[in-house]
Amino acid sequence: MRIAVIPARGGSKRIPRKNIRNFAGMPMIAHSIGLLKETQVFDRIIVSTDDEEISNVAKHFGAEIPFIRDSSISDDYSGLQEVVADACTQLHHDLDLTDQVTCVLPCTPLLKRDDILKFLRISDKNPESFVFPITPLRINPDRALVRKHEQTFEFKFPEFRFRRTQDFEQLYMDSGQFYIASASNWISNNLDDFKCEPMEPWKTVDIDNFEDWNFAERLFLLSRQEIAGGEK
């Protein structure tokens, strides 16, 4: 069985009500729910939330709310693994420990159906692994600067100050979009064995403030215009 879990607590600080704020004409979380429905491969699409309004919006767009998340794992310090493990535990009567559980973050409007399907295929071939997309680091950390005072900075690693960009090894980072593992691995926190594949950087905008939000919305609308143009 394939289960999708969208963690969406109500206490967003930097962008209040972020998970149900209007994004390109729909509540943000509706885009994630719609994406998962579009794949047509998930037996259940579940939203884990502590918030009644988010619950109602999620139900309206076709997700299940089989439980309300406890406040003890709904604060700023609650980790993603803890939240998904809780969802698996809550569903234990209807879930086998070998079942595949995909956690999709609620603020991922730039993801495409084929992105999810590609990584599900990777997970199918590696059922014991934790699977997730990564994205290239735009700037190598060896070129980082640190502030000393006012407008005075210095290179963290001065020996690399004049190294050419193309001479650095390409580094990657977790894109923070979605994660796939067995229910057993989520519950046991056995996530050390993992498989990754890079994904296009423009799909992995981290929406942490209103500037990110506006940028992501412009990218979203542009991508839809390109799709519509290609279908003519």
CATH class: Alpha Beta
- Roughly what fraction of the amino acids lie in strands? 15-25%
Instruction: Point out poorly predicted stretches.
Output: none
Number of strands: 11
Written as H for each helix and E for each strand, in order along the chain, the element string is EEEHEHHEHEEEEEHEH
Distance between the termini: 38 Å
The CATH architecture category equals Alpha-Beta Complex
Q: What is the residue-averaged pLDDT?
A: 93
Number of domains: 1
- Computed over alpha carbons, the radius of gyration is 19 Å
Total helices: the number is 6
Fourth-tier CATH superfamily name: Spore Coat Polysaccharide Biosynthesis Protein SpsA, Chain A
Model description:
- It is a single chain.
- The protein is α/β, with parallel strands linked by helices and 232 residues long.
- It has a single domain (2-134, 173-230), classed as Spore Coat Polysaccharide Biosynthesis Protein SpsA, Chain A.
- The protein contains six helices and eleven strands.
- It has helices at residues 28-39, 52-60, 80-90, 113-125, 183-188, 210-230; strands at 2-7, 22-23, 26-27, 44-48, 100-104, 130-136, 145-149, 152-155, 172-174, 178-182, 194-198.
- The strands form four sheets. A four-stranded mixed sheet has the order 4-1-5-10, with helices on both faces. Strands 9-6-11 form a three-stranded mixed sheet. A two-stranded antiparallel ribbon has the order 2-3.
- It is globular.
- The protein starts with a strand and ends with a helix.
